[in-house]
Each structure stands twice: as structure tokens, then as C-alpha cells.
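Input.
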Amino acid sequence: MSTAPRVGQAVSALRGVRTADGEPVDLHIDDNGLVTELRPASPAPAAGGELLLPDWLVLPSAVEPHAHLDKALSWAATRAPYGDLLSAIDAWRRYVQTMSEDDVRRRARRALGMYLAAGFTAVRSHVDLLHDTEDPLRGVRAMLALREELRDVLDLQVCLLASYLVPDMLIEEALDLGVDVLGGCAHLAEDAAQETTRLLDIAQRRDLPVDLHTDEQLDPSMLSIRELAREVSARGMRQRVTASHCVSLGSLGTQALSEVLDEVRAAGLAVVTLPITNLYLQGWQSPSPMPRGLTAVRELLAAGITVAAGGDNLRDPFNPVGRADPFETTSLLVTAAHLDARQALHAVTDAGREVLGLPAGGVRPGEVADLVAVRADDLLDAVAGPSGSRVVLRRGRVVASTSVDQRTAVDPGPMPAWRSA
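Output.
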């Protein structure tokens, strides 16, 4: 890199980069943060405002469509056991009795720094409405404060996660604070159809997008997504409606799955798959063979349904690991969901922007210059997990820069002097 990037720097061009197709180009950006044109790479030195990144791969920046920033990085504090969804819920419920608003904001801010460094410029975070505590809105307030603090750095959408036990009045109070999206877990209620109706009624009254945790378990008879699809179709909802998880779809037979997908497509639902957390949480009690614990990703795509992918939980009771890295998700999509490199990249970029209702971003002229440049040989190399060296742009401005200097004893050049004869 002959022109070092500075965080906050406005970039007029990325010089000598390669597109996902491997084409060497100079990518030009205007003062409004839009890509204006791609030209064949020029050997001329970089001018002011230009970054010379020879042979780096430039890709659309990533979108995390489903995070839980109020829980992020809480694994040690919660003293959670390794286990399934119910054990994670129990550990979290114990911890929130002592959790402060400052604690939420501190952990979430640190997590957002990790997301940004890895190449995310947009995040949708669900946040619990803590109805059974003295201050049920503290997590919501913390997330909304971060949204305002960081609005010039990344797009943060706050999605209210309302349990079926939460009364309407408390949901309305939280929405009055300025929440972006209404979410919930209808499939956990005794009457999933009734809870779906309640949440959609509130969303329509408030004109809010909807993102529901849906069928987050392996039982193929649990298909609350059908009720969601039917309700959305019957109402003619113009708001974006997303079903996250949808794990039970992955356990359906071919004919039954085809019928459900027809309803999902007709309703215009988007689906978010969350491989790392679902692979961790699902199947602990299942007899051999161990189920895969993912939704029917390939079948959803074949049906023409928008499928975005994310990481879900980050080092908390629901997932003790994770790197807040889009390329961790893409690698899992190739390995566990059997997608190819382009499908995997689309799931963490363009599809995520569609779910969040963001304008198109990427390398094509007219798109928002939300970009990540990585050191990778080709697209599959990037999707598998590139080196840590990255430059992240949001609307044409550098928001993160990471440089890794890695050397090993097998690098080209003379053998080390200490090698044995």
C-alpha cells in the first residue's frame, strides 16, 4: 500500500484494485459518496485523495442483518454453560437482573468496533425489552444512544425484541423512543397465530418494518412462518417483513417445503439465516445423526426468496465464539449450506441491504461507495477468510483500516540461519 489510509479520510479513488471478477480497475468516487466509474487500472502515481491498493480485492461492504448487541461479549459475565437455546435463555435471564444501561452500551460499542474493522457498515440489532425487571427499557435506550453517536460511521438499526409476555403498553412505550423495527418471537407463544397478529397489528399502526425470530428449533411441525406469510399476504402489508432463523424449514421433506416456500414467496417475506449460532444452539438433545440446524438455504434461493445471512450472537450465552466477521459467515455458508462463493457474498452484502431497506452499495457506478478492500487472491479466497488487512469505506470515507504484517519461516527467500543441517 503506497498511500496509507487515514480513518476519516474522504477517498476520491481506489487505485489498482480488482473486482470480484478479477479485473484490475481504478474505482472513482464523487463527493456524495457514490461510485462514478470504473476505469482500467492506471500505472500513474496516486494523487491526493486516492488510495493505491495494488491487487487488493474490492467488494461491497458487509451488512449484519441480525445481531444482539445488548448481549454481545457477555459470555464471561453471565457464567453461562455450553448448551442449547433454553440453557442460554436461563443464563441470560439471570444476568439481566444485575445488568446496567452503561454495561450494555460499553459492550455494544466494543462489538460495533469489531464489526466495523471486519468490513460491516450496517448492522441491525435486536434488543430485549426487559419486561420483568425494574428498568425494562435500559437496553433500548443504550442502543438508541449508540445509533445517534455513531450515525456518521455506520448504519445501525434498532429492532425491538418483544416477548409474547410483554403487554402492548410497554411495547408502545419502547417504540415511542424511536425504535426502527418491531421484532418478537411469536413461535414461543402458546398461540403463535395470535401473537403474530398482535405484532403485525402494532407494526401496521406504527408503519414499522417487522423482523420476527421464527421457528428457531428443529421440529418440522413448528411452522409459524406459514401463519406469518398468510397474515402478511391477507393484509397486503407494504412494510418490509423478515423471518429470521426459520430452522425448522431445514427439516421438512421436499413436498411440504415446496408448499411453504410458495406461501413465503407470495407474501414477499425475506429470510435471514444465521449459521454460526444455529449450528451451535440446535441439536444438543437430538439422537444421532446430528441435524445440521440450518434453514433450507438453497431451496429458498431456488424459489426466488431473498436470503440474507448474519452472525446473530457474539460471545454471549447463545454463542460463546464468533469474530464479528462477514467472512466467517460466508465460509460457513459454503461449508454448511453448500452455497458457492458468489451466493455466499450476496447473502452478507446485497441481500442484507435489501432486508434493511438500504440503497444499493458496491462497486457499480451509481451505487453507494460502502466498500471493503481485502488482501485476497480471488473471490473464493476472500469468502473463505482473507488476511486481516482491510480498508473499509462508508459513503466514500475511510471508517476502518487494519494492516497485518505476517512473516513465516516458509516465506520465499533465504532459509533462516538457524535451520539445522
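The chain has 14 helices and 16 strands.
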